[in-house]
Amino acid sequence: MEEFVVLIKYFVLGLVQGITEPIPISSSGHLVIARELFGIEAKGLSFEIFVNFASLLAVLVIYWKDIVRLAVNGVSYVAKREQDTKKDFNFIIYLIIATIPVGVVGVLFGDAIGEALSNTKVVGITLLITAVAVWMIRNLRGRKDDGDLTVKDALIVGLAQTVAVTPGISRSGATIVGSMLMGMKQETALRFSFLLYIPVSLGTGILEIPDMLKDPTMDTLLIPYIIAFITSFIATYFALKWLMDIMAKGNLKYFSYYCVIVGILVILFL
Predict the structure, then answer these.
(1) What is the Cα–Cα distance from 55 to 231, expressed in whole angstroms?
(2) What Pfam families is this protein classified in (predicted)?
């Protein structure tokens, strides 16, 4: 019976990660809340990295056509300097530029920030910050397409992403807010945000592999981790599709309402 309860807990954690990773309400913050509610103590970042990789795979599935196009056209531009492929080559460069700030912050301070600020009170406060940020862009309709981006746009979005190292600050929310404040169209903001998620998530996972291999919980909790992984993959896929629909309808404000309610409840009761 106890083993079954553990499986249910990790199923719920995977579901929480999967649903909250794409939408602007902070997956890391919600994992902290869920662990507090379920009484699950997990030291280190192994579990987060594990389920985050499942979310990464879901993003790859959804954006695989864009990834293939960018790769093919990027190589084509380097080899042949064909002008009709320059837009995609530049898009790749901007993704690289936007990755640098969070890469530096993550390597130097990521673990320290995560461990120091992974408590419910901090998450409650940062959820309120996320609510304000999402509220700011609720009615924005940008004009910039993929081919209109600049180095400045990439740097601003990259800097916005570094804020999401703090639990409770949504990574997708930070990058979407940054993108839309720079005047990007919703579709472009979404694409840039989630294609930017790929190198960041992949890089974080690779850096954490040694620690994951030394994590004693990996053997005893392998089955629960696998259940959480599968759940996170499926939930992320459908949550991202849902976010695309919500942004198209201009309903981002509801995420702001949600973050305010959850943030206040967390501060008061957890």
Answers:
(1) 10
(2) BacA
**Model pLDDT for residues 2-22, shown as the tens digit of each residue:** 788 888 989 999 999 999 999
Q: Which residue, 33, 31, 34, 24, is CA-closest to 121?
A: 33
Which residues, 6+ apart, have CB-to-CB distance to 37 below 8 Å?
270
Alpha carbon distance 189, 157 (integer Å): 10
Helix 186-214 to helix 86-117 angle (10° resolution) is 50
Label residue 217 by pLDDT band (50, 70, 90): low
CB 54 within 8 Å of CB 233: yes
How far apart, in whole angstroms, are the C-alpha atoms of residue 240 and residue 63?
11
133 closest CA partner among 98, 180, 94, 87: 180
Nearest residue to 236 via CA among 31, 14, 49, 45: 14
Q: Cα separation of 5 and 3, whole Å? A: 5
| pLDDT category of residue 250 using cuts at 50, 70 and 90 | confident
Give the C-alpha separation, 244 to 253, whole Å. Answer: 14
Q: Is the pTM of this model over 0.70?
A: yes
